[in-house]
Amino acid sequence: MKKLVILGGGYGGMRIMQRLLPNDLPDDVELILIDKLPYHCMKTEYYALAAGTESDQEIRVPFPDHERLNLHYGTVESIDLQNRVLHFEGDDTLEYDYLIIGVGSEDKYHGVPGAEDYTYSIQSMEETRRTYEALSNLPPRSDVSIVGAGLSGVELASELRESRSDLNIKLFDRGDTILPMFPQRLSTYVQNWFIKHDVEVISNSNITRVEQGALYNHEDRIESQAIIWTAGIQPGKVVRELDTEKDKSGRVVLTPHHHLPQDENVFVVGDCASLPHAPSAQLAEGQGEQIAMVLKKRWNNESIPETLPTIKLKGVLGSLGKKHGFGLMGDKAAVTGRVARLLKSGVLWMYKHHSGV
């Protein structure tokens, strides 16, 4: 039996399993999923778990329940590409014939002293649970600082305001205006929401140091009982240490068919892959579709196109609490308010209830 190993049960890994099970996996191929947890986690909703507006169980999706799928729980420490062996914490190893790497991302601290030691994170389920506990236990009128005003920081700040109206929330933004990747109309809408709901946005910030109970914006010391870092991501450690070509962001350079240039049986999906678009759940799912197609064509001895279609993204939707939102749909049509929030809620409901096999 040949072993097809999916390392990481994220959005890309889930889509690949959905496309191979139950009928498109050859009889001589064993499908193995490796993950630390016994369920898929909806990472796009970690901000709500951290803020306390959604429960742990609400952002879980069961892995496919199928006799052809074998689950292996653990953490891979290193990948031996030459010998096709995965090394786990401890002395366990696992050989593979095909490997799909989808380990996701970690926080990137940009060399800021103290940032890794004294900030909370929403990059993994375990870290988000710790962040939730810390925020929930803050006494009234505590100061909370969120470093990074991208989509994650904006959603966390707005959800936390809805959850804890008593907190003093500061959102640190490196740019002149919040969410510069969106049209000015959306940026202004979000900015006005924060003004109305008493979230302080600090523009042109530069966090130079973090200490226990405080951070420094340029040279100004700002007291904070909790500091959450949402100011950038990087590939997981096992990918950072992988002996293969990477781009300037540390993501793995791939062929048009999403595998390593030197090994057509090792694919990379999701946040760790070097692609034209910024990492997202949609992009990982699109990659997963194409990787599954490539594998099926190989197994069926069918020709594979030299280039694959461009992965089309349907848009971006962001939340401002449970009643308002913002986003860009399809042909870049801007949506705001309750309509945007309802659209996002619908997308999440569909994903959660239609992700099985």
From TrEMBL:
Alphabetized UniProt keyword annotations: FAD, Flavoprotein, Oxidoreductase
Domain of life of the source: Bacteria
SUPFAM superfamilies, sorted: FAD/NAD(P)-binding domain (SSF51905)
Keyword Oxidoreductase: yes
Stretches assigned to the FAD/NAD(P)-binding domain: 3-284
Entry similarity comment: Belongs to the NADH dehydrogenase family.
The protein, known as: NAD(P)/FAD-dependent oxidoreductase
